[in-house]
Amino acid sequence: MTCAHLDQIRPVRPNSRRCEECVAQGDGWVHLRMCLTCGIVACCDSSPNRHASAHHASAGHPIARSVEPGESWRWCYIDEELV
């Protein structure tokens, strides 16, 4: 399958180096993801709060990338595939 959402990727920079929603709740996270439409950094689905998925669900932004050191993969939430 070919992702039809690549046109929604913008030249963004991370808005943070941590999941600000987890910090506000006093929680931790496992890994961080950055939305490639708006630059928000949020925790991954292995984290208790799954803020990156929640951001996709509320904002509709389809693609996020890992911001972990040494990783550059991207994930499309809509197509459920690496892009």
UniProtKB/TrEMBL annotation:
It comes from the Bacteria. This is UBP-type domain-containing protein. Coiled coil: none annotated. Gene3D superfamilies: Zinc/RING finger domain, C3HC4 (zinc finger). Residues 1-83 form the UBP-type domain. SUPFAM superfamilies: RING/U-box. It comes from uncultured Acidimicrobiales bacterium. One of its GO terms (molecular function) is zinc ion binding. InterPro entries: Znf_RING/FYVE/PHD, Znf_UBP.
